Amino acid sequence: MTTGLRERIAEASPRFKARMAGVSYLLGSLTSVFGQMVVLGMLVVPASATATAANILSHESLFRLGFVASLMTVPFHLIWAVLFYGLFKPVNRSVSLLAGFVMLLGCAMWALSSLFHLAPLLVLQGQSSLSAFAPEQLQALALMLFKMNAQAYDIGLVFFGFWCVLVGYLIFRSTFLPRIIGVLEVFAGLGYLTLLWRPLARYLYPYNLALAGPGEISLMLWLLVVGVNDERWKEQASSARDWRS
Amino acid sequence: MHPTKKAGRIAGAIYASMVFVGPFSLIYVPNKLIVRGDATATAANVLAHQTLFGFGIIADMAGAVIFISLAVALYRLLSGVSVPWALLMVGFVSVSAAVGFFDTLNNIAALHLFRGGEFLSVFDQSQRDSLGMFFLRLHSQGIFMNELFWGLWLFPFGLLVYRSGFLPSWIGVWLMINCFAYVILSPIALFFPTYYGTAFKLAQPVLFGEIAIMLWLLIKGAKVPELPQRTVASA
Predict the structure, then answer these.
(1) Which residue in A6, A82, A130 is closest to B130 by CB distance?
(2) In principle, which of A173, A209, B17, B41 could form an S-S bond with B35, CB 3.0–4.6 Å?
(3) Angle made by CA atoms A230, A233, A238, in degrees to the nearest 5
């Protein structure tokens, strides 16, 4: 009885779930790129704490919007991690579960980095309580907090890269998505994994991050436009069930 | 007792135990120790009540542990309704707990700065106090940021309650609305703090959704015998 209930509710077609995964993939990537790269790229001047502080105080709304975007990326990534787990469970349950946990850690890291993203505004605006410091000292402190945000975000990206490698493998082993996307996704993951060692990442920049483009964009578009092959997915799901029982 | 009913009661009891830690670390300790805009007075307060401040940190961490336990108990109760939604619920709670744990570090940093060990002697007393005050403020901003996740997990939770058939669906709807209240309150607290008090008061009736489900689980558990009828009726 309960299994009957369970099955009926889980009845949403794999293609629909894949499309939803594509939508959250798109929203998660857009908010992440906008919040962490576009807005901070416009406002933060890495060599000058004074210029950074002036930029932020004169574009406060944009700065806040960037913060909200980079925080909202966390729920979108979580939604897509859950949908991907369901989608690839028939291919390999343990690897899918591992991918889900890796993404969870990446999401936790990004949520923490958001606090550093917010902190500079506190430093630059909290004049009364931080009056013991000279303005240049506060500006330097704000820039340091931005750098901590960037580092924490990069650590999140390393987890994300690991997730890409695992998902690339799952796509390659699946029968319901094109294998070439799996290969490209593994390369995308390897690009993010270079962030593990900063000198290497800096040496390869921007090629390491450009490597992410083909895999991520092709997977996202394929999920949005084509979804997955329903029949093949059900075939693989039922054979996985036979194999286990 | 029927296993579903028992799982409901356990979840309710874990939920209720939050009452012992939440108000203490979120309201009592900050109200007692933090003097808004006055770093020197705050530092003096914290140093004079280090045990209380320490218990606040412990209560924060205990709250995160309870939150994770609650998610696991609710997963056991509700994963039969829909595994993906139950997983999403646990995912939001896990991130929220991670943020909560991390956020206690800001309070610990403040304590170190107020105490001012030898290696901190290169800073003036007033500099240490104001930097400590900054970390206390960062801690409270972290709580406001976390309000987003306190809200988000309620959507899958409410949906699962609504669909379950063994918990009242009106509480499910209430919880889903409760989700949006927190999601809206979080940016108001961070960016328009002057309106936060009013907004919180307005949202109060919606925020009682969590109290409703907690009491229901604790007192009633789950309505097990009705399950077969509901299953047929909704087919």
Answers:
(1) A130
(2) B41
(3) 125
- Amino acid occupying residue B99: V
Q: List C-alpha distances in Å: A148 to A55, A95, A167, A228, B17.
A: 19, 31, 29, 39, 36
* Local structure of B59: helix, strand or coil: helix
Label residue A63 exposed, middle or buried (CB < 10 Å: 0-12, 13-18, 19+): buried
CB-CB: which of B38, B80, B91 is closest to A6? Answer: B80
Which chain A residue has its CA at the smallest distance from B125's CA? A132
Residue partners of A181: CB distance under 8 A and separation at least 6: A171, A215, A218, A219, A222
> Which whole-number Å values give the CA distances from B131 to A155, B79, B109, in the listed order?
26, 46, 9
Say how far apart CA A84 and CA A97 lie, in whole Å.
10
DSSP A195: G
pLDDT band at A243 (very low <50, low <70, confident <90, very high): low
User: What's the longest Cα–Cα distance across chain A?
Assistant: 70
Closest Cα in chain B, distance from residue A204 (Å): 32
A78 Cβ under 8 Å from any chain B Cβ: yes
Distance from C-alpha of B164 to C-alpha of B80, rounded to nearest angstrom: 8
Its pTM stands at: 0.89
Name the pLDDT band for B86 (thresholds 50, 70, 90).
very high
For residue A89, what are the CA distances in angstroms to A51, A183, A194, B6, B170? Answer: 50, 19, 28, 30, 33
Query: Any chain B CB within 8 A of the CB of A83?
Result: yes
- Stronger pLDDT, B107 or B36, i.e. the higher one: B107
Q: Can you list the alpha helix ranges (DSSP code H) found in chain A? A: 2-9, 14-32, 40-43, 49-58, 60-88, 93-125, 135-173, 179-193, 198-204, 207-210, 212-225, 230-244
Question: Are the beta carbons of A122 and B134 separated by less than 8 Å?
Answer: yes
Contact of A74 with B91, CB cutoff 8 Å:
no
Tell me if A9 and B163 make a contact (CB, 8 A cut-off): yes
Q: Is the pLDDT of residue B32 over 90?
A: no
Minimal-distance CA residue of chain B relative to A60: B191
- The mean pLDDT value for A108-126 works out to 90
